[in-house]
Specification:
The protein has about 170 residues and is an all-alpha fold. The protein folds into two domains: about 5-65, UraD-like, CATH 1.10.3330; about 70-155, Oxo-4-hydroxy-4-carboxy-5-ureidoimidazoline decarboxylase (UraD-like). The chain has nine helices and two strands, in the order βαααααααααβ. The relative contact order is 0.17. The protein has a two-stranded parallel ribbon with strand order 1-2. Helix 4 packs antiparallel against helix 9 (about 145-165) and helix 7 runs parallel beside helix 8. It has helices at about 5-10, 15-20, 30-35, 45-55, 60-65, 85-90, 100-115, 130-140, 145-165, and strands at about 5, 170.
Length: about 170
Amino acid sequence: MPHRLADLAALDRDAFVAVLGAVFEDSPWVAAAVWEGRPFADVAQLHAAMRDVVRAAGSERQRALILAHPDLADKATRPASLAAFSQSEQARAGLNDLTEAEIEEQRALNRAYRARFGFPFIMAVRFSTPQKILEGMRARVQNAPEAEFAQALEEIYKIAEFRLADLIVT
C-alpha cells in the first residue's frame, strides 16, 4: 500500500521504520538512521539519504546488508521468511518459471559466486529476464572481489530505489 511522502514526515521513529524498514533487505537500521532527516523534499532525496547511510556504515555492516539478500531463483534454498519485496521482484523477473536446465545453471552459478565472494549474487532484476540474469551471473563471477562487493552495493541501491518508488507517492 503506497504512502504519501508528506505523511511519512509525521511518523514517529517506530512507525517510520515499520513502513520503510524493508526497503534495504532485512536491514531496518537504514530507515532508522534517516528518520531524523525528515521531512524529505522528494523520494530521490530520501533514497540518497538512505544510500549515504549505507555508504558510511563501514564494510562490516555493508557485508551484513549484502548477506541479508537471498540467492536468486533458488526456490530449494529460499527461506520461508523471504521478504515480500524479494518474492515479488523475483517472480516479476520470471525466476519462478525457469526450466530445469536454467534452475541447475542458476544453482551452480549461485554456488560458484558464493564460493568466490562469500555472499549472494545481487542484481536489481525489476526489468530483467532470466536470460539476462544468467548472463550477469556468468560475467560477474569473474570480477575481482573488491569490484564485486562494490557492484553488489550498487545493485542494492537500485533495488531500494525501486522499492521506494513502489512504497511512496508524492
